[in-house]
From TrEMBL:
The chain crosses the membrane at residues 902-922. Residues 95-107 have a biased composition (Acidic residues). Belongs to the NFX1 family. This is NF-X1-type domain-containing protein. CDD domains: NF-X1-zinc-finger. It comes from Anopheles epiroticus.
Length: 925
């Protein structure tokens, strides 16, 4: 062990989350055992390759020489690939002991990175002006990533380096190599597709075909198991905020960040965005301030942080609770979130049988006893549990049917019992195919006993069996389960094999734990256990992913270090591993490099570790590396970086430049001097000019070469064809073709006639005249094809909008009176105002004649009704009044009847004679 030389071991790449520091020396000793062993192994392999080893040739003469030649070439190609792989492994291989010692050497410079880490954190958090407790978790998360090697890809269990292309989970913010997560996602979806293809549809015990379930493919995060869709597989390497693709590695920024503001929307959504620079992990709470009142709204407005959303005052709520009697009395809260009333009072149950003291919000309660109130029938009682309101009618008095439901009847009373009808039951049995063969019966039907041919679940056997039983054969399923290792072995399996219930038990990549998941295909999930790593003194402990103990740096310990400083500053620092870190204080001595009056503000450089390599080193093989020499030197002062004001070449601004480079230069802004055209300005970037204070064109400015950029009148879309000039432009002479208002004809007009210049300066009369001229341009001069609301065609010339004067339509329409006897033709506008005509004397005479006819019919109907009633009365007296009337009365009735009959015959004769006399007197004279 003492003769091992670690200087020839390939240097490990620097920690991905540490700021760049100067390289570290390796202990110088004897020869390295690993490279020598690897070199010997490779030499043996090379000798074997050079010796021309061949595969044993078959002695059968029937094998052609072409097949032997192809086999030999394939064997040589595979052998060369193995040799190249062995060389590569020998160069990159480092044992765990070497890695451990190298980590100890790396620990010597952890203190040197403290200042750089603080600078990076300060740049990221400089725009955050919130409470320190809100940003504390984010700052601690970033500091742990910068100072330890916790950034580990859980798929390949390798450190995520600064230059690696990564992907970060949006739920747990864990980093993975981009290639690893792509391979993980594709493998996961491939396994699910293979398992879905192996599944098959099956027939259930009813003979129905059950298809296999639909394919639902997604992939999960290896750590938090967040589900992602196939289209969410990362295809590109992006920074944490997603603004920049393929971000470059900057030594003074957080790795894999773009250095721009994050600008992600904060959660919960408040309308503000994150002000930190592009960073990993969650965004801190919103630091903005808002003016809001308290939760109950009774206090004045107060300024609070947006992340807090609301605040609570000390006043008591005075709102009435749901009971309407008591007040809330709780401390400030939202108006709709008053707690239930906790006051107690004596309340009766829903049925009123019992009473007890309950809370006000529980005033409606059930006692749990049966109501037992009599129904209106008086024979039965209510069997419901305590309820409110009336019990309703007796359920036995409603229409009922026999048990099979074929005969429905309404019982004479609710006490009458409805029996069976005697017919066959014929209810559908549980099988859904056959009917019950028994007579109408009480209770549920039995099992179906029909013998039907059935196919077993696996489909290999068919035999007659009772309908309510499932057909199962004795065959065992030989299919492989989802794990691909064990057989199903289920009796009469229908094709839907159960998942494997055995534990995987494979050793995980960490080498300490075993997979506790059920037996599965493909790689196991990464180990989710944690291991602890301690500092040198053992006072600080951090947790890292299981299996990463040796590759993780020792945690930062805050206990003081007792080693004295090597420079002129009192360098006090915390506990660390290896040598003390270099001094991080400013030098403070006069700068003899720039020879200015500013003191040196660079980091102390009295004792700096400098690593040099031998330029004349000639490696024996690819596994041999040059020797490195480490020396502690005092470096010269760097150039002075004190900011001094310097004006740019064009005189636009005065910026602060480092003292060592304080000379005028271009600021990059456009020159902006007004050119001779009087419209444009010089587009060149800031350049040297004769007089910096002038604002007009200089001899070094670029002359104007653009076209006219004056805004055209509103509505005109045609550019000016002249060169750059002062306003105004010539009128636009482009001819425009458009459809008229009615859409039947195309009209043409000049652009400047329709969109003249100076629209903003025109008066109301000029604008009205312009609108009339535009309407005349778009009108074809023909008759409008639109119809009025009344249905007649418009009489105006082609016009925009609705047709004018729709109420003045003069078309002839027919109008009639209410009785329909009188009909005339009038104009449409008159018909709308007076839709009906007044009836004349002839209409009234016709109406009177109809009314007289109706009265005559009603009079005759009354006379017939009286005659019928008189006959019924006489018939009634003849049947029920057996007592003979007196003679005197009978004679009187007969005389009255004779007198009435005589009047009936004489009256019409007299009327006819009078009518004949009047006719002769009036018409014959």
């Amino acid at each position: 062990m003492a003769s091992r030389n670690r200087s020839k071991v390939a240097p490990k790449e620097q920690n991905a989350w540490n700021v760049p520091v100067q390289p570290k020396p390796d202990p110088i000793g004897g020869k390295s055992r690993k490279p020598a062993t690897s070199k010997g192994a490779i030499t043996t392999t090379s000798e074997t390759c050079q010796s021309g080893s061949k595969i044993p040739l078959p002695t059968n003469s029937s094998v052609s020489s072409i097949m032997l030649k192809k086999s030999q070439e394939k064997f040589n190609q595979v052998q060369r690939q193995h040799v190249e792989t062995a060389k590569k492994y020998a160069v990159e291989y480092v044992s765990s002991e070497e890695e451990e010692e190298q980590n100890e050497a790396n620990g010597e410079e952890t203190g040197a990175n403290d200042a750089a880490t603080k600078n990076i954190l300060g740049e990221v958090l400089k725009n955050y002006h919130g409470i320190e407790t809100d940003v504390g978790k984010t700052e601690e998360y970033l500091q742990n990533l910068l100072e330890s090697r916790n950034a580990v890809c859980l798929i390949c269990i390798e450190t995520v380096k600064r230059a690696d292309r990564i992907w970060s989970c949006t739920a747990c913010y864990t980093f993975f190599h981009l290639m690893c997560i792509q391979r993980w996602a594709n493998d996961s979806m491939s396994m699910k597709r293979i398992n879905h293809e192996q599944q098959e549809g099956y027939y259930n015990n009813r003979g129905e075909y059950i298809p296999k379930p639909a394919l639902n493919v997604h992939w999960d995060c290896p750590k938090c198991r967040r589900e992602y869709e196939p289209e969410n597989i990362p295809r590109h390497y992006e920074c944490f905020c997603g603004k920049e693709r393929e971000p470059s590695a900057h030594p003074w920024l957080i790795p894999h960040s773009c250095g721009e503001p994050c600008a992600k929307k904060l959660a919960p959504a408040c309308g503000h965005t994150c002000r930190l620079l592009c960073h990993p992990g969650p965004c801190p709470p919103c630091p903005q301030t808002v003016n809001v009142s308290c939760r109950c709204g009774s206090s004045p407005v107060k300024t609070i942080r947006c992340a807090q959303k609301t605040w609570t005052c000390t006043k008591k709520c005075k709102r009435k609770l749901i009971c309407g009697i008591h007040e809330c009395g709780a401390q400030c809260h939202d108006p709709s979130q008053c707690p239930p009333c906790q006051s107690r009072s004596k309340q009766a149950c829903l049925c009123g049988a019992q009473s007890k003291e309950v809370n006000c919000h529980e005033s409606r309660w059930q006692c749990g006893t049966v109501c037992n109130k009599p129904f209106p029938c008086g024979l039965h009682r209510c069997e419901q549990i305590c309820h409110a309101g009336p019990c309703g009618p007796c359920p036995l008095g409603l229409p009922r049917s026999c048990p099979c439901g074929k005969s429905e009847t309404r019982a004479a009373s609710c006490s009458e019992r409805i029996g069976t009808c005697g017919d066959t039951c014929e209810k559908v049995l549980a099988c859904g195919k056959h009917l019950c063969p028994e007579r109408c019966h009480q209770g549920a039907c039995g099992d179906c006993l029909e013998m039907v041919p059935k196919v077993c679940r696996c489909g290999s056997t068919k035999k007659p069996i009772v309908c309510h039983r499932e057909a199962i054969c004795e065959g065992r399923c030989k299919r492989m389960r989802s794990c691909g290792k064990h057989q199903c072995n289920r009796k009469c399996c229908e094709g839907q094999c159960q998942p494997c219930d055995k534990v995987c038990g494979k050793t995980l990549p960490c080498g300490k734990h075993k997979c506790s998941s059920l037996c599965h295909q493909g790689p196991c999930y990464p180990c989710n256990q944690k291991s602890s790593v301690k500092c040198r003194c053992g006072g600080t402990v951090v947790e890292v992913a299981c299996g990463r103990e040796r590759k993780a740096n020792a945690p930062k310990c805050k206990l003081p270090c007792r080693t004295a400083s090597k420079c002129h500053h009192p360098n006090t620092h915390s506990c660390h591993t290896g040598e003390c870190p270099p001094c991080t204080l400013p030098c403070g001595e006069p700068n003899d490099t720039t020879n200015c009056e500013h003191p040196c503000r660079a980091k102390c450089h009295d004792a700096v570790r400098v690593v040099t390599r031998d330029k004349n080193f000639k490696p024996v093989g690819p596994w041999d590396v040059p020797r490195e020499t480490v020396e502690v030197k005092t470096l010269p002062h760097p150039p002075c970086n004190v900011k001094v004001p310097v004006m740019c070449l064009g005189g636009h601004e005065t910026a602060d430049w480092p003292c060592s480079n304080s000379k005028p230069s271009s600021c990059g802004r456009p020159c902006g001097r007004l050119l001779k055209c009087g419209v444009h300005r010089c587009p060149l970037p800031c350049h040297k000019v004769t007089h910096r204070a002038t604002t007009t064109q200089d001899s070094r400015c670029e002359p104007c070469s653009t076209g006219c950029t004056i805004a055209r009148p509103e509505g005109c879309i045609h550019p000016c064809t002249l060169r750059c000039h002062k306003p105004p432009c010539d009128p636009c002479l482009v001819s425009i073709k458009a459809h008229c208002y009615c859409g039947l004809t195309q009209v043409f007009y000049k652009c400047h006639e329709f969109y003249p210049a100076g629209m903003e300066e025109k008066t109301q009369e000029e604008l009205a005249e312009l609108n009339r001229r535009r309407e005349s341009f778009l009108s074809c001069g023909q008759k409008c094809i639109k119809n009025f609301p009344c249905g007649h065609r418009c009489t105006s010339i082609c016009h925009p909008g609705r047709c004018p004067n729709p109420d003045q339509c003069s078309k002839k329409v027919k109008a009639s009176c209410k009785c329909g006897h009188r009909k005339v033709e009038v104009s449409c506008k008159v018909a709308r105002t007076t839709p009906t005509l007044d009836c004349d004397q002839q209409c009234e005479a016709i109406l009177a004649q109809k009314q007289e006819e109706q009265e005559r019919k009603e009079r005759e109907a009354r006379e017939q009704e009286e005659l019928r009633n008189q006959r019924e009365l006489q018939e009634y007296e003849r049947k029920f009044n057996k007592r003979k009337p007196r003679e005197r009365k009978r004679h009187q009735v007969q005389e009255e009847e004779r007198g009435r009959h005589w009047a009936v015959y004489v009256a019409p004769v007299v009327a006819v004679l009078i009518g004949v006399g009047l006719y002769y007197c009036l018409f014959l004279q």
